[in-house]
């Protein structure tokens, strides 16, 4: 048996000084996830197959071991996912033995609840919100755990850890509950729900370092691979997938690329990279001069793009 | 890597956002696309400098009004530490945000405009940081370039601030003065050539060298139980683990503990973190503990070391900072959340209001408005297990929830 302190950071007990361990962010996240299980009746973990939600799953495993994760996972499927992500998702769920709920944006379109965007920048990113809100209502979820981080985007930097949404799933950014010390107030009225962000305080590098340290498996598109691509607006787009609109004059070229985020394929651009192992990815992120969402065209629509989406119930 | 949370406080135009921008810029933490966006917008607005506030003011309303409304969190790191800055607005009406930011921070930066010196707002910022017992406070005297880097001005401000320090309640707070120009970059990350009379550290050097013992108030171990883990599988048939976070001090296997409120005694049998067992659970770790005996423990109960009991009481006196637009009144129905424990609370009396600018107290107060700070007496429907805030930052604080709106309406520091 070793001490937990030793395990996490060796010098801490040597001089007998009390200190938080090096993984303060991990302990904080586990605390938050346990609060969700304790304070809510029907929580769910929103799982996209991306690295942030994969990290959440590991944290939830740690929070409740040796018991199983006491809530289901839910994937809002845009139908525009990278196929690698879906394969990965199904494998993970089987290993964990937890319930997976899938709700499809395509169904919302077929039911006439949302209208598919058209044109060069068409994406299903905005449409996800309707499908998500319908699913929350269908299952009466009162808490949805998500992998959003404050360092991603400046409207997200204003987000609480327990973020209350009204009946319409809306975020009232000017009237948020203060969060003091470690105390999380999960009191809500019927019909309201809380979005919970356990890795709020993690940066992209923190997530990658954690995946490296914990040896967590992630979908292959996060690693450098050869792909048919084309250039638009200075960004690299996949030419292998039909859902990404490509004009006839946009030249296809094979490049070594990887993806830093795995959102809707139609709004997620690749970056040129030779990082084909986790160690190389961590090194690349550490030296990167471009932010993670720099390759997300959905944020470039306007300076307030994220804030507007969040007000409407987006994650 | 170590994580250090810092709160910033300053009045409008003291250059808080510029200082944060400077820290990001000089530590090369700002990525090119974010920097380009700032350059573009600064140019559009016709500024001849980079307006770093555009990086932190994330809401439309903030950019429109050119002010910070809500706490924003900014992240940067050096090879040795990860920093989280809670950028809190400095207006009088947003005291609640400053209290919030300071509650989760181990260090705090108070900005003073060198041209204006110590003003009423400075008193307020210092009062709140002292009330919240933030261990390390840095007084950054900014805009030194606009006073010709005058040593005299710096010393005058330092003397004025030191006078303020005489009034503080929490005497053990470390206070450091640094002359800076956030706009020009003097003494923020890099040493200034313009202040040869200043021998101290730059802001970043100071933060880098902060030792954990300089920034944490320590106390006795407290383990509020968040969740009971019962796997009910064949392998772990009899497993009953108590999940929670350790506060104040560490717990060890073999420690004699008392379960509150039942006062049952037992011993720590094992400490788990995920699938491994450990001898020690250090403070601030989220672990699962099993006990030697079959003891009835549920959420809201607390494990403490035998011989080290907190106060168990249904009445308490506390300093409350009110944060809600609905007033705090003796007739109000409130829920008091102390850690993970919730009880009903009634206001026994509002003893007096405390002016957060050190200008004294006000008696005969019948209700509290948003941003008011007051000493109050509360009655609870069930006892809680508390320490005084001055002895235990976590176990000595609570929040007040308005049961009509469910809003977090106030925070209290127990005396």
Written account of the structure:
- The complex is a heterodimer of chains A (315) and B (415).
- Chain A is of the alpha/beta class and 315 residues long.
- Chain A is built from ten helices and ten strands.
- In chain A, strands 3-2-1-4-6-5 form a six-stranded mixed sheet, with helices on both faces. In chain A, strands 8-7-9-10 form a four-stranded antiparallel sheet, with no helix packed on it.
- In chain A, a hairpin with a 2-residue loop joins strand 7 and strand 8.
- Chain A starts with a helix and ends with a helix.
- Chain B is 20% helix and 35% strand.
- Chain B has helices at 16-26, 32-44, 53-56, 60-65, 95-103, 120-131, 151-165, 203-209, 212-215; strands spanning 2-9, 72-77, 81-87, 107-113, 136-142, 174-179, 222-229, 241-245, 251-252, 256-260, 264-273, 276-278, 280-281, 286-291, 302-305, 311-322, 334-338, 341-354, 361-362, 373-386, 397-402, 408-414.
- With 415 residues, chain B is α+β, with helices and mostly antiparallel strands.
- Chain B is built from nine helices and 22 strands.
- In chain B, 50% of the residues are buried.
- At the A-B interface, helix 1, helix 3 and helix 4 of A face helix 2, helix 4, strand 2, helix 5 and strand 7 of B.
Attribute tags:
heterodimer; A: 315 residues; alpha/beta; six-stranded mixed sheet; 10 helices; 10 strands; globular; disordered N terminus; B: 415 residues; alpha+beta; six-stranded antiparallel beta barrel
Low-confidence stretches of chain B: none
Separation of the first and last Cα atoms of chain A: 42 Å
Rg value of chain A: 20 Å
- Helix count of chain A equals 10
> For the CA atoms, what is the radius of gyration of chain B?
24 Å
Strands of the largest sheet of chain A, in order across it?
3-2-1-4-6-5
Distance N to C terminus of chain B: 35 Å
Percentage of residues assigned to helices of chain B = 10-25%
- Main pleated-sheet profile of chain A: 6 strands, mixed
Number of strands of chain A: 10
How much is the average pLDDT of chain B?
90
Supply the helix-strand structural class of chain A: alpha/beta
Stretches of chain A where pLDDT is under 50 for at least 5 consecutive residues are 1-21
Q: Average the pLDDT over all residues of chain A and give the rounded result.
A: 84
DSSP, total strands of chain B: 22
Strand content of chain B: 35-45%
Report the oligomer.
Answer: heterodimer
Sheet/helix structural class of chain B: alpha+beta
Tell me the overall shape of chain A. Answer: globular
């Amino acid at each position: 048996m070793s001490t937990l302190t030793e395990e996490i950071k060796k010098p801490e007990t040597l001089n007998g000084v009390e200190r938080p361990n090096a993984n303060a962010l991990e302990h904080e996240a586990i605390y938050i996830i346990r609060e969700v299980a304790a304070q809510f009746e029907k929580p769910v973990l929103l799982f996209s197959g991306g690295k942030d939600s994969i990290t959440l799953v590991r944290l939830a495993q740690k929070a409740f071991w040796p018991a199983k994760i006491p809530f289901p996972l839910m994937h809002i499927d845009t139908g525009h996912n990278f196929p690698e992500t879906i394969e990965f998702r199904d494998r993970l769920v089987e290993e964990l033995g937890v319930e997976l709920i899938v709700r499809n944006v395509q169904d919302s379109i077929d039911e006439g609840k949302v209208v598919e965007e058209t044109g060069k920048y068409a994406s299903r990113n905005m449409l996800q919100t309707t499908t998500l809100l319908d699913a929350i209502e269908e299952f009466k979820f009162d808490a949805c755990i998500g992998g959003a981080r404050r360092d991603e985007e400046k409207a997200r930097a204003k987000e609480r850890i327990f973020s209350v949404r009204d009946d319409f799933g809306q975020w009232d950014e000017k009237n948020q509950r203060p969060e003091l010390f470690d105390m999380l107030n999960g009191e809500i009225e019927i019909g309201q729900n809380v979005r919970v962000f356990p890795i709020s305080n993690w940066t992209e590098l923190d997530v990658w370092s954690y995946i490296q340290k914990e040896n967590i498996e992630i979908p292959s598109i996060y690693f450098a691979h050869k792909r048919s691509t084309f250039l638009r607006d200075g960004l690299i787009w996949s030419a292998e997938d039909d859902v990404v609109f490509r004009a006839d004059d946009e030249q296809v070229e094979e490049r070594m690329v990887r993806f830093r985020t795995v959102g809707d394929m139609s709004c997620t651009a690749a970056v040129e990279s030779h990082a084909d192992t986790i160690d190389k990815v961590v090194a690349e992120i550490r030296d990167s001069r471009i932010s993670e969402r720099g390759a997300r065209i959905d944020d470039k629509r306007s300076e307030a793009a994220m804030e507007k989406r969040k007000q409407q119930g987006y994650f | 890597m170590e994580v250090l949370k810092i709160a910033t406080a300053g009045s409008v135009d003291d250059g808080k956002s510029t200082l944060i921008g400077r820290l990001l810029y000089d530590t090369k933490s700002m990525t090119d696309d974010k920097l380009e966006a700032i350059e573009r917008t600064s140019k559009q607005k016709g500024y001849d400098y980079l307006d770093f506030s555009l990086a932190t003011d994330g809401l439309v309303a903030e950019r429109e009004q050119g002010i910070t409304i809500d706490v924003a969190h900014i992240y940067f790191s050096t090879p040795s530490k990860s920093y989280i800055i809670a950028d809190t607005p400095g207006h009088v009406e947003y005291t609640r945000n400053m209290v919030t930011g300071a509650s989760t921070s181990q260090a705090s930066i108070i900005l003073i405009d060198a041209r204006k010196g110590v003003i009423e707002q400075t008193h307020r910022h210092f009062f709140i940081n002292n009330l919240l017992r933030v261990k390390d406070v840095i007084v950054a005297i900014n805009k030194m370039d606009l006073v010709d880097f005058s040593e005299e001005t710096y010393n005058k401000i330092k003397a004025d601030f030191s006078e303020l320090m005489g009034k503080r309640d929490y005497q053990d707070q470390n206070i450091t003065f640094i002359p800076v120009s956030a706009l020009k970059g003097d003494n923020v990350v890099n040493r200034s050539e313009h202040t040869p009379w200043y021998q101290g550290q730059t802001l970043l050097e100071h933060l880098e060298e902060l030792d954990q013992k300089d920034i944490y108030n320590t106390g006795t171990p407290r383990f509020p139980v968040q969740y009971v883990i019962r796997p009910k599988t064949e392998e772990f048939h009899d497993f009953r683990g108590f999940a929670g976070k350790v506060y104040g001090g560490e717990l060890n296997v073999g420690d004699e503990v008392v379960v509150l409120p039942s006062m049952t005694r037992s011993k720590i049998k094992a400490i788990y973190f995920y699938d491994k067992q450990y001898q020690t659970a250090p403070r601030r770790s989220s672990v699962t503990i099993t006990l030697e005996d079959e003891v009835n423990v549920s959420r809201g109960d607390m494990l403490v070391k035998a011989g080290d009991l907190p106060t168990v009481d249904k009445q308490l006196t506390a300093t409350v900072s009110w944060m809600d637009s609905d007033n705090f009144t003796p007739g109000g129905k409130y829920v008091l959340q102390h850690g993970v424990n919730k009880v009903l609370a009634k206001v026994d009396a509002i003893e007096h209001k405390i002016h957060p600018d050190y200008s004294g107290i006000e008696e005969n107060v019948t209700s509290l408005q948003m941003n008011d700070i007051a000493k109050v007496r509360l009655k609870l429907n069930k006892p809680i297990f508390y320490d005084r805030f001055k002895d235990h930052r976590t176990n000595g604080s609570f929040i007040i929830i308005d049961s009509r709106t469910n809003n977090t309406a106030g925070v209290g520091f127990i005396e």
